Amino acid sequence: MKKNTFSTKGLTKVYGEGRSAVHALRGVDLDIPEGEIVVLLGPSGSGKSTLLNIIGGLDRATEGDAFFQDQNLSEMTDKQLTRYRRDHVGFVFQFYNLMPSLTAHENVELVTEIARDPMDPDEALAMVGLRERVDHFPAQLSGGEQQRVAIARAVAKNPTVLFCDEPTGALDSTTGRAVLNVLKDVNEKLGATVLIVTHAASQAAMADRVIHFADGAIREVVVNKKKLTPEEIDW
Ligand SMILES: Nc1ncnc2c1ncn2[C@@H]1O[C@H](COP(=O)(O)OP(=O)(O)OP(=O)(O)O)[C@@H](O)[C@H]1O
């Protein structure tokens, strides 16, 4: 049986208190097996980013436990959480978050300089199809190319897990498919567990497992027997 990269028990998050309290997660029990592509779907405000932030070590739960392999993130000190993020987690966001004054190579190098077991920045950029663009600045690259630099930056540290929050949200279908193909490659070639949060329900067809979220809770988990390639999914 596959081990879990993540499991959560009764994970609860409340922002604020009293009358203004927002219950973003209401006791989430979840298992994410290692090496899977998992798509998290749900309406705006249902708690997807909150879950991602907690299991990604960026935020803490109000109650409950979140395990990364056999380590309880809820019991870690801030220093241990930083170490966990640095060693194991790659993040990809909708709006790339690249440094405009640095080249593609330098943007990736920012991460590899502090990582435990990094790839060569140019190797990571070659993996996302940007071998010829390593010396370009973000403003000289298209949206899809910038997102691929962001993915190269996230994978160059050899992460155990890659978190992607709306990675294709700002992209057209052709470019979006190219980006999903890169995520699929990262999963297959590096064995990283890939967690994608999206509003695009059709992207669920490329996942091993689809988690449907509503109102801070899991409504349904679907395991896909057959996965589609990014080229095969509707947009
Ligand atoms: N820092 C915060 N302070 C107060 N409330 C917050 C905070 N962050 C999120 N929330 C609230 O928690 C709930 C869940 O938000 P979250 O961002 O996790 O949802 P989401 O499913 O990721 O939404 P979207 O798809 O729009 O990104 C929402 O009601 C949101 O307004």
What does this molecule look like?
With 235 residues, this protein is of the alpha/beta class. The protein has a domain at 34-60 and 88-223: 3-Layer(aba) Sandwich (Rossmann fold). Helix content is 28%, strand content 28%. It is built from six helices and ten strands, in the order βββαββαβαααβαβββ. It has a six-stranded mixed beta sheet, sandwiched between helices. It has a four-stranded antiparallel beta sheet with strand order 2-1-4-5, with helices on one face. Helix 6 links the parallel strand 7 (161-165) and strand 8 (193-198). Helix 4 packs across helix 5 (143-155) and helix 5 (143-155) packs parallel to helix 6. The two termini are 34 Å apart. The mean pLDDT is 93. The protein binds adenosine-5'-triphosphate. Residues 15-16, 22, 24, 42, 44-50 line the site of adenosine-5'-triphosphate. Adenosine-5'-triphosphate (ATP) binds at residues 15-16, 22, 24, 42, 44-50.
Short description:
The chain is α/β, with parallel strands linked by helices. It is 28% helix and 28% strand. It has a domain of 163 residues: P-loop containing nucleotide triphosphate hydrolases (Rossmann fold).
Mean pLDDT, to the nearest integer, reads 93
| CATH fold description of the domain at 34-60 and 88-223 | Rossmann fold
- CATH A-level architecture of the domain at 34-60 and 88-223: 3-Layer(aba) Sandwich
> Low-confidence segments, ≥5 residues, pLDDT <50?
none
